[in-house]
Structures are given as C-alpha cells and as structure tokens.
Amino acid sequence: MLAATRVFSRKGYDGARVDEIAREAGLPKANLLYYFKSKKALYRLVIERVLDLWLNALGDIAVDINPAEAIRNYVNRKIHLSRHYPEASRLFAMEVIAGAPVIGGHLVSHLRPWVAEKGQVFKRWQDEGRMAHIDPAHAFFMIWAVTQTYADFEAQIKAVTGASDYDSDIYAATDAVVDALVRGLGLADAPAKGQKQNKAAVVIN
Amino acid sequence: MLAATRVFSRKGYDGARVDEIAREAGLPKANLLYYFKSKKALYRLVIERVLDLWLNALGDIAVDINPAEAIRNYVNRKIHLSRHYPEASRLFAMEVIAGAPVIGGHLVSHLRPWVAEKGQVFKRWQDEGRMAHIDPAHAFFMIWAVTQTYADFEAQIKAVTGASDYDSDIYAATDAVVDALVRGLGLADAPAKGQKQNKAAVVIN
DNA sequence: CGCAGATTTGACCATTTGGTCAGTAGCGGG
DNA sequence: CCCGCTACTGACCAAATGGTCAAATCTGCG
C-alpha cells in the first residue's frame, strides 16, 4: 500500500508497473493481485486513502480564535502534511491534473461541501472586516496552491535554489511564505474594532 | 506537435499513446515516427518548447515602474499564459512532479539564473522597504504556485465551485487573488519614503 | 519523360505488461 | 494424520504498444 503510493506518485498511473510495486512491497506480483483485484482497483484504494488523509488530517479551521491565528494553524498543518507525505501530495496532484478521473466524484461530494462550510467562516470574517474580500473558495485555492507547491514542485525548487538538504533548507523558508499568505488574505490578528477598518495589520518586518 | 502537447498533457508521458497522438494530428503513426525518431524524442521536443514558451513569453519584470505595478503585470501575464495554454501548463507540471527527468538540466541552466537575476530586483525593493522580506526565490514559488493552480488543478476547482463556464467564471475571480498576492508580498504602490517604513499600504476593501 | 531522393503508409514484429490459473504450501480443527 | 480452506506463487497468455521496413507515392529537375 505504501509501496503502491510511492511508485504511483513517482511514475503516475500508467508509468507504474504492477511488478515494481510488488517488488517494492517485497512480494510476488501474483500475490499482490491476489489482495487487490487489479491495478486500477489498487490505484483507486490508494488515491482514496490519500484524499481521506487530506481531508481528515486537516481537520477544522478554528473559528473561536482570531483569523490570522486560525489560518496560520491551518496552513502550517497543511505544510506539515506536504512535508511529511510528499508522495501522497504528488499522487493527488497527478490525479487532479489528469482530470481527476477517479476521485472527481469524491471532490464534488466531499471537498465541495467542506469548502462551502468553511467558506461561511471566511464570509463572516469578511463581514466583520477581519479578512480581505476574496471569494472563500479562491482563498482556499491560493492556500492549497502555495502549500502543495513545496511537495509537488520539489524538483523545480531544488533546481532553482540548489538546496542540498531540501527538507531543512526549504522548509525553513516557509515561515515567511505563511506570513505572506496571511497578509495577503488580509487576516486580522485581533477582532477589528469596526467594520471595514481592516488595515492589514500584520507588520512586515 | 500541438496534438502531442495535448495528448501528453492529458495522459502523461507513459499514458500517452503514439498512435493517439498520430490520430489527433491526422496522420499515420509511421509517418509521425518518420518526423520524430521516437516517442521520447517527441516528448523532449514538446516539453522543451513549453519551457521556452514559459521563459520567453514571461519576459522581464519591469524595474522602472513601482513594485506593485510590476508584479501585477507579471502575475497577470502568467495567468494569461495559464489560461491560454492550460495543456502546456499541465504538461510542465507533470514533468516536474515526476522529478523533471527531461528538463531538470534546463531548469538549472536557464530558470535558476533567471530567478537569481530577478531576485536582485526583489532584494533592492526589500532594502528600500518596498517589498516584504521574503527570500526572492520563494516569492516566485508563491507566484507560480498560485498562477499555475488555475490551469493545473482545473478539475479540482471545477468540482469545488461547480463552475459551468470555467474560463469566464473562474478567471473573473482571479483579480482578487492577484490583489492578495501583491498584498502578501507587501508590495508598495509608490516608492516608500523611508526604509522599513513599509506599512502594507494596500487598502483591503 | 525519367530518375533520384524524399515522403508516406500498411503490414509486421519484438517486447512489455496486466492479469489468470493450476498447483503448492500453510494451518486450524477434528 | 487428514480434511478443508485460505494464502501464496511460478509459469503462462492475450493484448497492447513502440518501433521497423519494404513498398508505394510524390516532387523537383535535367
């Protein structure tokens, strides 16, 4: 299962060889196909598990604390995920890029309501002047884009920065990125005193 | 060539069938292989052309105008590209996710110096207090992540928003995202009066 | 026209790959 | 020890696929 995630994420669905997955899992191909009916079935299981991981591990966005803090938490958790399971992240990315043929339905049935619900919180914050006016869904797209890029485009980032130790070198720099994200979304540290008074309070240096 | 880009971007290298590319190009497979020695050679050509498009079409980041304006231009151009050539964007993404086996060298030899050079501009802006202090390379990663997400994760965005007309529905919302990006990077509209005086001047509403 | 070289193409081939199957090994209970 | 059942596996197969090739067709030119 882990082996499958690794191989699929490295080669994509078509590029992955059942035999390679089996070898990586340390058992004969026939045995692998004894447990999982087919390559496609295995892929489906793996990708659904990844999506679950994504949705569950992220948990909620705290409503009770201030927006900046809440989003900072969420983003950091997301980055933590990407850092800890880069293969999962990449696998998910490939699936979506290919048009989400397998998890398209799940995205509609699970992710969509999730976004709709959390979006309500954003809306409230925006009404209270504690968050910039951005379509909540797009705020998520921004957050996801930025957090996933460190897992998905690792090769590019490595090439550009020449980081020798990706994990420590790169993720050390993400704090500033999280700041930028929070600032960009215009999140207030504390409840605003009045409507629209929002002054992008985060100090820059 | 266009056909190849389309098919490769839809299926990935391994998923793409030479025969399908040929059919999409409206000529027999044998003829396609007469022009391009092999599938791999064709892929290499296509992906290199995409990278060129990326690097060239983006052109420069204007130094003479104010930072906010300059980056806004750059980001808008990038979004325009993603919007106009989503297949190219996705193809590039898949290549990088797979570890950039083909264009890894190009990234180091072309993209890296490009970033280093443009990064100097960012550094200057930062020293002048006209931009938040973020490692310039990471500022680019942020920008790229956000702009590419609209092409690469189209399937996800569609699933979440339920947009019926992706092109117009979605790209209409990107203005707010560009704003957030500019705000997040702490870009000043006009030259700051003094060092470190930066107050994330962009008003939020 | 006639020829030489380039272009085009259907037929074909070697290899790879997902998946099957018949048979073997392990194992719990009687 | 044996029976029945599940887990496991090497050998095998049909289909798909990248690539080749020889023959056909086209094109420019003397």
List key phrases describing it:
homodimer, mainly alpha, 11 helices, 0% strand, disordered C terminus, DNA-binding
Short description:
2 copies of one chain form a homodimer. The first copy, chain A, contains 11 helices and no strands.
Description:
2 copies of one chain form a homodimer. Chain A is mainly alpha-helical. Chain A is 71% helix and 0% strand. Chain A has helices spanning 2-15, 18-25, 29-35, 39-58, 67-84, 86-97, 104-127, 136-152, 154-161, 166-171, 174-184. Chains A and B meet through helix 1, helix 6, helix 7, helix 8 and helix 9 of A and helix 1, helix 6, helix 7, helix 8 and helix 9 of B. Chain A binds a DNA duplex (30 and 30 nucleotides) through residues 17-19, 27-31, 33-35, 37-39.
What's the total number of strands of chain A? 0
Largest beta-sheet characterization of chain A: none
Count of discrete alpha- or pi-helical segments spanning 4 or more residues of chain A: 11
Task: Determine the mean pLDDT of chain A.
Answer: 89
N-end to C-end Cα span of chain A: 45 Å
Oligomer: homodimer
Q: Which two chains have the most extensive interface, and how many residues on each?
A: A-B, 66 and 65 residues
Helix content of chain A: over 70%
Q: What would you call the shape of chain A?
A: globular
**What class do helices, strands and sheet pairing of chain A give?**
mainly alpha
